[in-house]
Write a structure and sequence with these properties.
- By secondary structure, the protein is mainly beta.
- It contains no helices and 11 strands.
């Protein structure tokens, strides 16, 4: 079992920036994929960005150029740097860990990001 703890959410004005962090603990299997998802009120959870344990990244189209995902394997931590934030980025952001070859899929508790106009 892998535990994920997110931090860094909050309230920011449109055009501002925030950095989210997610620390994983427990039995970390590699290779794996860690990523960020978000869920706005009344909407389905959607992928924001993911990064593999070898550093390959992938972004949702609407986040490209504004968000940057990174990870430090030695710390089992993944980050999401968000800039040029828009009110439509308001959501609960969830961290995810998924082992590539094993049925291990863990979620964090979520952190609220609110972007005011």
């Amino acid at each position: 079992q892998v535990q994920l703890v997110e931090s860094g959410g909050g309230l920011v004005q449109a055009g501002g920036s925030l950095r989210l962090s997610c620390a994983a603990s427990g039995i970390i299997l590699r290779p794996n994929v860690m990523g960020w998802y978000r869920q706005a009120p009344g909407k389905q959870r959607e992928v924001v960005a993911v990064v593999t344990s070898d550093g390959t990244t992938n972004y949702a189209d609407s986040m490209k150029g504004r968000f940057t995902i990174s990870r430090v394997n030695a710390k089992n931590t993944v980050y999401l740097q968000m800039s040029s934030l828009k009110p439509e980025d308001t959501a609960v952001y969830y961290c995810n860990y998924r082992a590539t070859y094993y049925s291990v899929n863990s979620w964090g508790q979520g952190t609220q990001v609110t972007v005011s106009s």
